[in-house]
Amino acid sequence: MAKYLLLKHYRGAPAAINDVPMDQWAPEEVSAHIQYMNDFAARLEGTGEFVDGQALSPGGKPIHEWLEIRPFLDMPPTITE
């Protein structure tokens, strides 16, 4: 069964402080980021807000172009298998 992940991009936010691609970060920066994400997930688990955490597989297809043409809230996609 296909799985989907909806990510929210907040337009109009202040400019990024760090816009360096992650593959160019120092190892300690990557470790600190992963620790932050783990701590954040633990906090959400503690409040009952955490749903699931999974790695995405290679080959996924972004649908951002689709969302710009057909807003999700107006016409949700039809999921077929």
UniProtKB/TrEMBL annotation:
Protein name, UniProt field: YCII-related domain-containing protein
Q: Which domain of life is it from?
A: Bacteria
The UniProt entry, under Gene3D superfamilies, shows:
Dimeric alpha+beta barrel
Q: Species lineage, top-down?
A: Bacteria, Bacillati, Actinomycetota, Actinomycetes, Micrococcales
